[in-house]
Design a protein that fits this description.
Shape: globular
Oligomer: single chain
CATH superfamily of the largest domain: HAD superfamily/HAD-like
Number of strands: 8
CATH architecture of the largest domain: 3-Layer(aba) Sandwich
Number of domains: 2
Helix content: 40-55%
Bound molecules: magnesium ion
CATH class of the largest domain: Alpha Beta
């Protein structure tokens, strides 16, 4: 078969390394980066010691009513009732869980009895929250371990009720028959799926480090609010799970959560 002289020459050049000189990188057109419309944040607000200063007077009232309830229903002395209330709150994130799990208490009865008081005269909060919520872009969701009726009263007093698109209170944190309040990741994932929220778009604003840590592990942005409660303890809190630390909610309009 007659050989092709040009092909032979190319082969010979290749073998001799003639083609080994550095080749200039060919300029390729930049890849098309899909430009998604920038998604708005979804703000997940805790209630107590976040939207208002529950430590000012409301927590004291709730604690007293819970201790009374435990003493009455479990027929124990007030000291023991107080110990159980604190123990369950620390262990489960809500006194209710311990009472249901260990004493078969009726959850709705407990919540009704312990939160049935007029919040108006005890409430203390930042001024201008309704104006802040009106101009803060994005959906606002309430995410609290507190009961529905109490949360509703606080939101109404703060004039925030019409700004909150969805409310997740302890009654809605029931999964397969068990209460799963914050910091439950199962509850957080379920809530995000139900509300069709991408974890990366969600910002949790909280006073509780434990709750922020759990949310951060799921990819949510996190904001620690340090204004209320035991302030020195909050100021000392540090950790990579805290994306942003603010003293007042008004700072949300100026600073970008991470
Ligand atoms: Mg709180």
């Amino acid at each position: 078969m007659p050989s092709n002289p040009r092909a032979n020459l190319r082969q010979a050049r290749g073998r001799a390394g003639w083609t080994a000189r550095p080749t200039r990188p060919r300029l390729r057109p930049a890849p098309e980066i899909p430009t998604e419309p920038r998604r708005r944040p979804v703000w997940l607000f805790d209630l107590d010691d976040t939207l208002h200063d529950a430590s000012h007077a409301i927590f004291r009232t709730i604690d007293r009513r819970m201790t009374d309830y435990v003493a009455r229903e479990l027929e124990v002395a007030r000291d023991e009732a107080n110990r159980l209330r604190t123990l369950y709150w620390r262990r489960y994130g809500a006194t209710l869980l311990g009472l249901v799990r260990h004493h078969g208490v009726d959850a709705h009865h407990f919540l009704r009895e312990t939160h049935d008081f007029d919040v108006a005269e005890l409430l203390r909060a930042e001024r201008g929250l309704a104006r802040l919520f009106a101009r803060l872009p994005g959906r606002k969701v309430l995410l609290t371990n507190a009961p529905r009726a109490y949360a509703g009263s606080v939101l109404r007093e703060l004039r925030l009720h019409s700004h909150i698109a969805a409310r997740y209170t302890i009654e809605r944190m029931r999964i397969h028959g068990s209460f799963r309040p914050k910091p439950s990741q199962l509850m957080l994932r379920t809530m995000l799926a139900r509300e069709r929220i991408h974890a990366a778009d969600a910002v949790l604003i909280e006073d509780s480090a434990r709750n922020l840590k759990s949310a951060r592990a799921l990819g949510l942005k996190t904001v620690l609010i340090t204004r209320h409660g035991r302030q020195p303890a909050r100021r000392r809190l540090a950790g990579s799970y805290i994306g942003l630390r603010i003293k007042t909610l008004h700072a949300l309009a100026r600073r970008t959560p991470r």
